[in-house]
Amino acid sequence: MVAPYTILSNLAKEIQPPDKGIFSRTIFGDERVKVIAFGFAVGEELSEHTASMPAILQILSGNAALTLGDDLHAATAGTWVHMPAGLKHSVKAETPVLMLLFLMK
User: Fold this and answer.
1) How confident is the model at residue 3 (pLDDT cuts 50, 70, 90)?
2) How far is CA 89 from CA 4, 27, 73, in A?
């Protein structure tokens, strides 16, 4: 029988920031939400873009420059952001960064 839940007993072991580049892996998806784990090496960035659905960003570790619309924010471990569909945003890692992205369907 398949369990009616998903558990990752140690998310930090599932994802690690790479030495170079950006790592991404879908860790959960159903008809309501898709959860993607990201690892960024120092200096890597997701350039400005928009999402077609509402999204939540959660910084798990590291420091990043986060642009939301025209506003620049310093994002650190514990930073949590809800973004409506269509909001321009970007992420630039200032240190190795681990981040979760929740795409709401």
Assistant:
1) confident
2) 34, 22, 11
Mean pLDDT of 57-66: 97
Task: Using DSSP, state whether 11 is helix, strand or coil.
Answer: helix
Q: How far is it, in rounded angstroms, from Cα 95 to Cα 97? A: 6
Strand-strand pairing, 64-68 and 89-93:
antiparallel
AA letter at 46: L
Pairing of strands 33-40, 97-104: antiparallel
At position 71, the amino acid (one-letter code) is D
pLDDT at 13 over 90: no
Q: What is the DSSP string of 24-55?
A: EEEEEE-SSEEEEEEEE-TT-EEEEE--SS-E
| Tokens describing residue 76 | 């650190």
